[in-house]
Amino acid sequence: MFEALTDKLQGVFRRLGSHGTINEQDLDEALREVRLALLEADVNFKVVREFVQGVKERALGAKVLSSLTPMQQIIDIVNQQLVEVLGGGQSRLEHAKSPPTVMMMVGLKGSGKTTTTAKLALHLRHQGDKPLMVAADPERVAAVEQLVALGKQLSIAVYAPSGKSRPADVCKAALKEAKSSGASTVLVDTVGYVQLDPEDLKELADLRKALEPTEVLLVADAMTGQEAVHAAEEFNRAVSLTGLILTKLDGDARGGAALSIRAVTGVPIKFVGTGEKADALEPFHPDRFASRILGMGDLLTLIEKAKAEMTDEDVESLSERMKKGTLTLEDFLAQYQRVRRMGPLSQLVGLVPGLSAIKNRLNVEDLDESYFARVEAIIYSMTLEERRNPDIIDGSRRRRIATGSGTTTADINRLLKQYKEAKRIMQQITTGRGAKISPLFR
Ligand SMILES: Nc1nc2c(ncn2[C@@H]2O[C@H](COP(=O)(O)OP(=O)(O)OP(=O)(O)O)[C@@H](O)[C@H]2O)c(=O)[nH]1
Ligand SMILES: [Mg+2]
What percent of the chain clears pLDDT 70, i.e. is strictly above it? Predict the structure, then answer.
């Protein structure tokens, strides 16, 4: 999720970065692109409008235009604004003064309520709680069975009604059971609605009254886009939500719903679900989430460093050759030397959005200083022709280069292999084909 948005925003920042100083027109242009990127990611239009306005106000207030480091400031402001849209600080689960704490899970059909109930119970147990899960969807035998199966699998107690009874009665009996068994939290899994009818919402509101829950958590499927946002508003009106849990963030939706839902409802996001397994639940931190969306590792530092090392022409012709797959060993050497001047490689790789994902394939760990020196020596021992067309480097050429550079033919083979791999990966990245690289959730 968010890959496209991350790419777009980084493109905006990169273009801004090439300006040096920024005038109001540049700022407006950049904000227009930010706006488009957010709309394309399916962020709610009202949220987009407020977001862009907020960024502009902050930018003018911070006197970005007269600043010597305008781009850094703008990235920083976009980041701050994003953190704010996502809720500011972390919002934790509340606990009742006297146990058990009741948490009611609500949501549309298939949003992930039952799975999330089990995930949350597991999370709470890790924190020392003694959870009891309640199947308050007695109409559907399969729904009860699903929760019972999850309880068995995770060794978490489940209260399941025998026969058909009203959800309110099930909950009453479950609370009694919780008290007698000493459960500290009661997690109530409710019916999933396909559509939100007034009667359904009334039923849910009645259940809320009967349960007096400390938390009413809406489980919302981030893959369903704006539909999830509208549903959240309706649920909130009917049962006053205390928190949101966004599920399926591991999916490939554009992510706009995940970004809009807090701003539209004002309800804090407490957790995100990132997979089908019971441990795929993460407490939500707006700041970490924002920097993941911006793909910032520390994008800024990298842009600055790279800019200092390369002219615009360098970048242009290099990326052109990367795209065409005609990167030569000379480019490879030049890149190595630039990277070497920029700092320790292992640190740099962490700065490049997406690169951390392919780190293992590049064997970055063994690229130490002495390796750099060897790469340099090897490439310097090659003829110009060999550097530009490494395919001609046969066995006898390899032996000659090894002798000339004081290395072994194994070193030459390794370098050529890495060069080929790098060339292939670069081409995949620059043309957006092949390996799908997500800066999120890796
Ligand atoms: N990839 C992924 N799948 C999820 C996540 N959360 C839930 N699912 C899947 O979504 C599907 C529906 O999940 P359930 O927990 O049964 O949803 P529900 O809201 O209880 O559904 P109803 O009870 O029918 O309303 C299941 O296949 C889950 O494995 C998540 O975070 N990531
Ligand atoms: Mg369910």
Answer: 81
